[in-house]
Amino acid sequence: MSIRFRVDDGFNPLTITPAIINSDQLGELCRLLAAESDRHQMALMFPEHGSPVEHSFSFSARVCPLSLASVSACFDHYPGVITVLEEAQFRGRRIRVWRSEADRDIWLGLSSDADAAPALEVSSQSGVAILEMLGLDGSETMGAIPLDELRRRLSDPSIYRRISNEPGLERYLPHLTEMARVKAFEGAPHLAWA
User: Fold this and answer.
1) Ordered mean pLDDT values, 10 residues apiece, the chain (194 residues)
2) Of the candidates 23, 34, 132, 139, which lies 20 to 30 Å from 167 by C-alpha distance?
């Protein structure tokens, strides 16, 4: 089991209708993301479960650093996909691509994650330890606190010292600090975990 920490601003990704894409278009998108990841030296694709070669999969991808024309070319500039891509770039969000067991269609829609917002997935044991080091109840494996509260806790010298002195947790401090810096396009951002 694991706990995933992420910045959540309450955005509903279903406000924009997802588009159906085909497997050739999916392949083109994956090739573009791999090439641009190498060129920009940053991760652009974030697997959630499975892989695109499996029947059921999902991943999110950063498209804001890329030109709309280069990404939409993967989909032959299909208007339904362009609508999703434009909205993702306008709102500073990732796209999400998925196919479920019950569905043969491949879907492309908006992600609930902000484009540049980091996420952190850790073991349940490390997640509980992080929560306790932040002065939160480690037994609550699902929850959220406002980013302002996270900033306050990370700026508290005693909490910062506890985290940085804990050998297994100090490596997560840069991720937490980066999450605390995120500014939301709209809504009230908070650190959520589940």
Assistant:
1) 86 88 96 96 90 89 96 97 96 92 91 84 90 88 92 89 81 88 78 92
2) 139
Q: How far apart are CA 59 and CA 47, in angstroms?
A: 4
Token couple for 83: 């609508």
Largest CA-CA distance found in the chain, in angstroms, rounded: 55
Sort strands 143-146 and 119-123 into parallel, antiparallel or unpaired.
Answer: unpaired
Tell me the whole-structure pTM to 2 decimals.
0.77
Give the separation between CA 16 and CA 136, rounded to whole angstroms.
35
Instruction: Please tell me the distance from the alpha carbon of residue 8 to that of residue 74, in angstroms, as a whole number.
Output: 29
Q: How many contiguous H segments (helices) and E segments (strands) does the chain have?
A: 7, 9
HSE (CB half, 13 Å, CA atoms) of 115?
A: 16
d(C-alpha 79, C-alpha 73), whole Å: 11
CA angle 150, 155, 160 (to 5 degrees): 95
